[in-house]
């Protein structure tokens, strides 16, 4: 489903701020894989997602989604394969537009946008059913501006938008990190439900080791722009937080175990 | 004196309505796309120049207006390309096009800075002549209704949605497969087309196309948009009504101008006054936010409150 081959990315090359963000990444995802990604700050986790989505071009290497080489495609052309949820709940939705309009925009991802009506009546009914699943009462607020919603509501809506068309690949960039604990738990449950229901191939970056272990069938640990551990199947099921901490301190001389990770 | 003032009202109302059309164009860039587009200062003159020159050449006035509209679209296209393909910030792109248009507008008018046109010799559809004011107001109103209706329809289509999403949240738009560069160009094209159309009407109204007629137009357009929002913002939530409130904003602006002129200010002082009005009205929401922010800081007594605020954000 996803094939990342030997990808390199350096920011500000040749300057004092030079940062080798990705250092030869190879990653291959099977259909239906749910991969959690952990790693310290600056390990290259977000850069990895940004390379897949095309926010920046890669320096070297190639990215293949569902058999199609997208390495040179601009961001908006790759979007048809991808569903994305960002860390900041403000990023995934258009605040000045209605809930239904936001969903309708997501429903047309990768399609030609014409002079046909932006949200059809049939779609509205469909959206109502989908929103009911969130259990946030949003189904009664189809014409409310998204800017009026809370962070958690917006993140749940973004998740719904991202999975609306069953994307080839769902990319979650610490999408619960900015929410309060109970909202984060709700959004995470919803994530699991939507991903498993749709059998969507997913990459989820998280700072929470327990979540990283509990969710998904595969866990990747990154450090210094490289994938340093890749744990699958049965081995992953028996994993504990203490194992992860140990693994990492071996690789990074203890830098990884910062308080943010220990606390979560 | 008061009676005399009321008798003189139709003229600022008509003028305000024509500028209100211009304000609709400004609304599209400033509010929908979230860009400040300074091209319009040049585009307004372009619209006037094209209309007057073509009309004097004997062209049908409605066709001439349409071509003025297209000329404005092209100006918007240039600004859009400078912004998205050359990577020049939107404000500077607008200034560059505006500057270039000065030369182009002089070319259109064969090197003359000013080309008069009179309702006596040509079949103009609007004019500041007292006998024609009622007709002017009716025709301008028809234009306003048509433009608002078309824009209301357009921004409800799939394509219109994608333009609005681009203005509201570029990251979201791109994540959903929208080519934000092409949508910004499209918005600038539509906006400048409307501004040029307004310029074509304005040249007829004032009986002349002048290469300087658009100087400071962006400020007047912004003033109209902002006055409209201040007066009607609380009650007009619908997109069509918001566009309409920009038009009313233009009318209020010109009535206020008529009053201050009566009170003894001269026409030379108007640009200073316009700049002040816009600066103050743009400042009000900022001050309000600061004030609310301060008050919130003061009564933050428990951490619980902070948590709910964070969750809301």
Give an account of the 3D structure:
The complex is a heterodimer of chains A (264) and B (313). By secondary structure, chain A is an alpha/beta fold. Chain A has a single domain (2-263), classed as Rossmann fold (3-Layer(aba) Sandwich), CATH 3.40.50.300. Chain A has ten helices and ten strands. In chain A, the strands form two sheets. A six-stranded mixed β-sheet of chain A has the order 6-7-8-3-9-10, sandwiched between helices. Chain A has a four-stranded antiparallel β-sheet with strand order 2-1-4-5, covered by helices on one side. In chain A, helix 3 packs parallel to helix 5 (151-163) and helix 5 (151-163) runs parallel beside helix 6 (181-198). The longest helix of chain A is centred in the C-terminal third of the chain and has 18 residues, at 181-198. Chain A starts with a strand and ends with a helix. In chain B, helix 4 runs antiparallel to helix 5 and helix 6 runs antiparallel to helix 11 (239-262). Chain B has helices at 2-7, 10-32, 40-56, 61-84, 90-108, 133-154, 158-168, 170-175, 180-206, 217-232, 239-262, 270-298, 303-312; strands at residues 114-116, 208-210. The model of chain B is unreliable at 300-313 (pLDDT under 50). Chain B has a domain at 2-214. Chain B starts with a helix and ends with a helix. Helices cover 75% and strands 2% of the residues of chain B. Chain B has 313 residues and is an all-alpha fold. The interface between A and B is medium-sized, with 40 and 28 residues.
